[in-house]
């Protein structure tokens, strides 16, 4: 959802300075959270919302969706045996830092926590999350695509329940394309580069942007080309395969670096005021982004007033159109922490919070989230919705739903935050002309391998 995606612009924190291969952290099965006796989880007090059933079990939830108050009220109205006590402990990294502090202290975590999919493994390896499979997770598996479920699973274990995602596509300005004679919407990355050159030759603005502060998006584009940055299985905690100096990664970094060097695209950091002003003013002809972008941009005033009706969306350009690859940028989940004293009640909340029809409808209609629940993705109302931001285009049916259903999932490392920080640094060097894309990939690989070994991993 939009407010969370802006966090991609912040400087990552190295949460796991010493990854606990010896399984530090984690609570006991008989501990009590949310008011239960003997627990290590934080007490479910000072709730932001109203508890409707005071005598029911209370489950403390940390989450930052902007419509969370309505979602929590929907859950509490529908349940008499369990009530959610919700608090916003920070958006993204600030919340993760608090959670890591609680893990290290062995107390103070919530019962249920909102986590981005790419952050799950880093907490799983510390035994900080509960496997939800014994608590009925498979009962909701059919609600999600294969890729969405893979992102939250490790073998037969399920460590979170998906809520929203970010299948990627290419947003473009129809008015800018028309003004500078771009008649063909790029379907391949070669065509994207050709259109960028055509626009520059015609005196147009930057065709796109390669900001250093969107490492998650860049990683997705690397995967689209065929890269497999990490291979990691939680059942084999000690070993990890790292492959960041492969040809696919080099090709992607070289491609975008060349566009920057030729002055065809910008290199500004995204999600800041200058970038948004540029979006409003037509400084960028395209925005390679995700399904949450319309909501984020609308919330920032893009596409309104004189800008209204100027935006459209097309499928993400491909390297090989005969073998299209769908990738994902962003997405959040609900996970149960190992400090909870009532895993069954917490699992119920993780599986059912933001899963009811009313909450999902509010989420997608307000463009707060792009839901991953198939009950929504297959509904006529959602599929055929005429998206106002895209001048009435049926973007869900034509672009985003097919992209989500084709997404195969990804493998994340136990140190995503550190990896993203190093990738950001390399992109900044590319944009400054200090290194080539190939050299950046080589240097990135060396740095991440060094870091992994320093954390006690055997690197294959």
TrEMBL record:
Protein keywords: Signal
Signal sequence annotation: 1-22
Top-level taxonomic group: Bacteria
PROSITE patterns in the cross-refs: PROKAR_LIPOPROTEIN
Family annotation (InterPro entries): Bact_solute-bd_prot1 (IPR050490), SBP (IPR006059)
The protein's name: Extracellular solute-binding protein
Record lineage: Bacteria, Bacillati, Actinomycetota, Actinomycetes, Kineosporiales
């Amino acid at each position: 959802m939009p407010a969370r995606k802006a966090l991609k612009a912040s400087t990552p924190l190295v949460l796991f300075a010493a990854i606990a291969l010896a399984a530090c952290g984690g609570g006991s099965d008989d501990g009590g959270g949310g008011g239960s006796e003997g627990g290590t989880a934080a007490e479910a007090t000072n709730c932001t919302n109203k508890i409707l059933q005071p005598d029911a079990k209370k489950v403390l939830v940390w989450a930052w969706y902007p419509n969370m108050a309505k979602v929590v009220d929907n859950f509490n109205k529908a349940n008499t045996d369990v009530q959610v006590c919700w608090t916003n402990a920070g958006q993204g990294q600030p919340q993760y830092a608090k959670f890591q502090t609680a893990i290290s202290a062995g107390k103070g975590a919530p019962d249920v926590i909102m986590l981005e999919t790419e952050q799950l493994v880093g907490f799983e390896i510390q035994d900080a999350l509960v496997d939800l499979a014994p608590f009925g997770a498979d009962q909701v598996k059919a609600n999600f695509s294969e890729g969405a479920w893979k992102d939250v699973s490790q073998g037969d274990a399920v460590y979170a329940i998906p809520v929203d995602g970010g299948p990627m596509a290419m947003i473009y300005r129809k008015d800018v394309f028309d003004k500078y004679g771009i008649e063909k919407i790029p379907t391949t990355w070669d065509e994207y580069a050709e259109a960028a050159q055509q626009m520059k030759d015609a005196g147009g603005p930057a065709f796109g942007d390669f900001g250093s502060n969107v490492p998650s998006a860049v990683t997705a584009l690397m995967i689209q080309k065929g890269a497999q940055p990490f291979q990691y299985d939680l059942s084999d905690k000690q070993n990890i395969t790292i492959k960041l100096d492969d040809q696919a990664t080099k090709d992607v970094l070289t491609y975008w670096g060349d566009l920057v060097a030729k002055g065809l695209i910008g290199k500004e950091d995204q999600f800041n005021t200058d970038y948004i002003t540029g979006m409003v003013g037509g400084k960028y002809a395209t925005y390679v982004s995700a399904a949450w972008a319309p909501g984020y941009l609308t919330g920032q005033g893009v596409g309104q007033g004189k800008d209204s009706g100027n935006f459209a969306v097309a499928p993400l350009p491909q390297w090989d159109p005969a073998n299209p690859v769908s990738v994902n940028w962003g997405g959040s989940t609900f996970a149960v922490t190992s400090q909870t004293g009532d895993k069954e009640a917490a699992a119920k909340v993780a599986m059912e919070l933001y899963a009811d029809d009313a909450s999902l409808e509010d989420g997608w209609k307000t463009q707060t989230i792009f839901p991953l629940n198939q009950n929504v993705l297959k509904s006529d109302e959602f599929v055929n919705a005429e998206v106002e931001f895209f001048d009435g285009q049926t973007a869900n049916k034509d672009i985003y739903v097919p992209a989500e259903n084709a997404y195969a999932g990804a493998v994340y490392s136990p140190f995503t935050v550190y990896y993203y920080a190093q990738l950001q640094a390399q992109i900044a060097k590319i944009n400054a002309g200090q290194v080539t894309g190939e050299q950046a990939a080589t240097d990135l690989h060396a740095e991440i391998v060094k870091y992994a070994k320093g954390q006690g991993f055997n690197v294959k």
